[in-house]
Amino acid sequence: MVHIPDLPPSQDRKKHFTRFQENWPHFLGWALSLLIICEIILRIIFAPFFFPHYLEKLPTGIVQEILPLLLGLIGLG
Questions:
Q1: Count of structural domains within the chain
Q2: What is the 3-state secondary structure (H, E, C) of the chain?
Q3: Domain range for 52
Q4: Does 14 map to a domain?
């Protein structure tokens, strides 16, 4: 029988991380989620009804760049 040594608990390994290293994925996930929500609400719902003459002047959407990052953060990308 092969003996597998005990791995240190995750709490011991977590002590070595700084506050930034622990929290950057959460911040990035929230920021990207808010960007997608704003993009959908402002560009798709709000702008066509209230500012139809500005639709052709708007820059291209950013959902194509943000969505792969957000899906990667939650493990689906």
A1: 1
A2: CCCCCCCCCHHHHHCCCCHHHHHHHHHHHHHHHHHHHHHHHHHHHHHHHHCHHHHHHCCCCCHHHHHHHHHHHCCCC
A3: 23-73
A4: no
For residues 25 and 63, give the distance between their C-alpha atoms in angstroms, rounded to a whole number: 19
> Looking at the chain, how many residues does it have?
77
Q: Is residue 16 part of a domain?
A: no
In order along its 77 residues, the chain shows pLDDT tens digits of 666 666 555 555 556 667 777 778 888 888 888 888 888 888 888 888 888 888 788 777 787 888 888 888 877 76
Is pTM beyond 0.90 here? no
